[in-house]
Amino acid sequence: MKNFNVAIPTPFRDDESLYLEGFNPIVKHLTDNGIDSLLVSATTGEQNSMSIEERIHIIDYFNQQKFVNVELMFGVSATTTRNAIKLVKKLEESVFDSILIQFPPYIQPTQQQAISYINELLQHTTKNVVLYNNPFRTGFELSAESLKTVINQKYSNLVGLKEESDAKRHHNTDLPDDFIMFAGGDVNLIEKIMNGCNGLSSMVGNVYPQEIKQIFNDLLMNKPVDLWKIKQLINKVTSGQAIINIKNHYNSLGIKVGACRSPIN
């Protein structure tokens, strides 16, 4: 699995219905600019505004395309295990290389319930899986001890964690050699890498694909970087509502992605 991906938006028509054909120019634009791994239907993709059926339509659409030389990851988020399993099973026979599993939003499971949730979903897929800890949006924080518990169960396809919280919590966890600790987003990127992240799932890469990928690689290799430039690029995209800024950027390029679904449009 690649340790750098760009989380792309979901294109909508003016009436907020899916505009599936809009994915193609996004993929082409980013791959033409050196991006070889994309995350579909995650936070940037407004996944929680979509029904399970709409997300299945996206999977079906990607199955019909012939995207080459690009790794594809799909975000799975659902308030019920049943719906999450439905998505995971659909992805098992799809062109997607990996699955990003977010914990159920809003309902705040216990740590043991979250572990059971992971165990249940992993039984239904052979795809590479990255867990997504995003307490700011879900109201649930996967503890360092719970991650240890899951890691110790030796799932060969559990390859990473996208961490929106403090990666330092996992310093004492014996992670597999090829495990990727993805920084969840670009804000405070330098601090996140210093705290142990060796991967990045980027929103800013939609607007500055070449620049952000180069900065990330330089940081990993301890090469000198322009701290002011990093801050400026990230702030331009993340100030205000990042998803709106990203969609406005694509629309300005003539890549029709529409607006966000209300109430954030």
UniProtKB/TrEMBL annotation:
Binding residue positions for pyruvate: T44
Domain of life: Bacteria
GO CC annotations on file: cytosol
Entries under SMART domains matching the protein: DHDPS
Active-site residues from the entry: Y132 (proton donor/acceptor), K162 (schiff-base intermediate with substrate)
GO molecular function, one term: N-acetylneuraminate lyase activity
Residues annotated as transmembrane: none
Entry keyword Lyase: yes
InterPro entries xrefs: Aldolase_TIM, DapA-like
Pfam families: DHDPS
A biological-process GO annotation: N-acetylneuraminate catabolic process
Family matches, as CDD domains: DHDPS-like (cd00408)
Keywords: Lyase
Family (UniProt): Belongs to the DapA family.
PANTHER family: N-ACETYLNEURAMINATE LYASE (PTHR42849:SF1)
Protein name: Dihydrodipicolinate synthase
Record organism: Paenibacillus polymyxa (strain SC2)
